[in-house]
User: What shape does this take?
Amino acid sequence: MQRHLISAADLTRDDAVLILDTAEEMARVADRPIKKLPTLRGRTVVNLFFEDSTRTRISFEAAEKRLSADVINFSAKGSSVSKGESLKDTAQTLEAMGVDAVVIRHGASGAPYRLATSGWIDAHVINAGDGTHQHPTQALLDAFTMRRRLVGRDAGLGQDLDGRRITLVGDVLHSRVARSNVDLLHTLGAEVTLVAPPTLLPVGVETWPCEVSYDLDSTLPKSDAVMMLRVQRERMNAAFFPTEREYSRRYGLDGDRMARMPEHAIVMHPGPMVRGMEITAEVADSDRCTVVEQVANGVSIRMAVLYLLLGGAEFQTPSTPAAPARTAEENR
Amino acid sequence: MSKTLIRGAKVLGGEPQDVLIDGETITQVGTGLSAEGAEVVEAGGKVLLPGLVDLHTHLREPGREDSETVLTGTRAAASGGYTNVFAMANTFPVADTAGVVEQVWRLGKEHGYCDVQPIGAVTVGLEGRKLAELGAMHESAAGVTVFSDDGKCVHDAVIMRRALEYVKAFDGVVAQHAQEPRLTEGAQMNEGVVSAELGLGGWPAVAEESVIARDVLLADHVGSRVHICHLSTAGSVEIVRWAKSRGIRVTAEVTPHHLLLTDELVRSYNPVYKVNPPLRTERDVLALREALADGTIDIVATDHAPHPHEDKDCEWAAAAMGMVGLETALSVVQETMVDTGLLDWAGVAERMSFTPARIGRAEGHGRPVSAGEPANLTLVDTAYRGPVDPAGFASRSRNTPYEGRELPGRVTHTWLRGKATLVDGKLT
Assistant: This one.
């Protein structure tokens, strides 16, 4: 069984389906008058947030509390980190206080992997977003949302996303959400297409298990779900695109474009949305847009991940250690 | 002065011969030489090379004595078989005045493990704006002939042109750290398949290649020589090959790590693999080996870059760039070039001693192993093979990418002008 959740690429199909199924069970807890399970009573989880994040931290915190864990919130601002303390010392300090799991959000790609593999600490490590690398629980909650909407809440149990056509639109280059989604959706059998201006796609994207297109309009009719990625306005200052207006004209999702999508297709967004940039208010507020659902599903998914990692239950398949393809083997 | 007889050494990998050192000089090379009055070193088939010359070392003193000093760095050099190292200018203060270069030069002399030839900064404070007093550094006791802003690129085309022209007056050379700064903002690793996956900022090959292309054209235009530091891509090899075919006076170096390691290693996010220029792809590695073999790349230089443990024991983005290399360079070259059949030991001597000394105008170094020459020598047990143990390093820093890796070859003896600095693998 895996000790950590670092990258969506580390999950097998069976791991991922188990997490999604477990999350469905967790979701039922939210429908009860008392939204709490005793599973993690006496276990301590620290939310170690080196980057500002409201929704992800609150989502993890809600999940931890619903599982009865003791929760410590740590934010780098105003802490010893701003006084120059290293990641290693911060982590070791927290572990010395008896932490069972560390949920980490960090601006540096690979920081959670370092934490999990450097022998600094023994706690379970859950990646809550690292730099432009991975955000595995986001990909899981997205997959959960897609399965519910496209396959069905009950019909989806035990199922993956075989053959579903998922389109991701926007700043793929700087997006950990995109990387995690490509990995996980591929594992779950979906057909992924990335749509972006060429400047916002990484060199090397041609080796990813997905299609790439520069043309949104031709992709929309062939999509079961369209996920809009946030595009930061500052990007245009670095010449990734000429102007905000031109970006939204070519890659933004408005009502007209949404009408080109199949009737059953949904619109997704990991948030926070930049209305008027990648998505218009009309689309964001429409019934086809699952943004709010995604937030609710995020709590269920994080409960499932914490439960499976810490609760003693095992993933169904004996999976490989974290990052199987990432061992330091050199090619000669 | 004392005499030393090295008996049965394969000089430059040839047939076993005896080499007699008297005082600071090699006095005889032949077979069956008399050992009378001499201390005898039984070479037993080890390979004898001219003392190695490193055109690219960071000794960190003054300013970062926590990572290396001239003393610890020259001890590491002697351990690795070097008798002369060129110390880069990016110290604190920067080696951009006669005062600083003389200090470094004098420290090397005092310690006596390895000659230290300081490199002068091209521009004041390595800032790329104003030429440093290149002439004053040349005329100082340190006699600087190599100038470099290494760590930073002389990116302004006019400053680079002027520097190339100016040092002609005293046969100097500018060693360029080729890195287009705008193309490498936020760069963390080679840009390609691996960086795309890891979400680390890319350092594209074109950022190196475009600067090399510009600089060989500038050197051609003004009739100067230019040296390219740590060339790392297959495309750079093509440009240098083209420039040489045109008769442009360009020389180039490759580091041992770029001959062996690839960016696949970065998947571990272990900052011990973080270096500038970054580890490239297997295709680049093979092109670099081929270019070193055919002479397109002239020399191997270590880019020995010591860093304290805390600067590597952290997340990738926060880590310092660089690797120590003096004590493993020859082993890596044997592994990648000799044991693969690409180069013989005479070729190694050419690329790690003769040519670097010639590029840097180092007098008394990079000389043939023959009577009348200064006794700067290195004895290598080429049959040895074993794991790299950083705990045994003489360097103050341990940031090696080879920890635990089995490598061939071990330097057992080093002589600096007849004086043994390394005996049976131990520093004197």
Q: What stands out?
A: The two ends of chain A are 32 Å apart (CA to CA). Chain A touches chain B through 35 residues (CB under 8 Å). Residues 245 and 277 of chain A are 8 Å apart (CA to CA). Chain A has a mean pLDDT of 90.
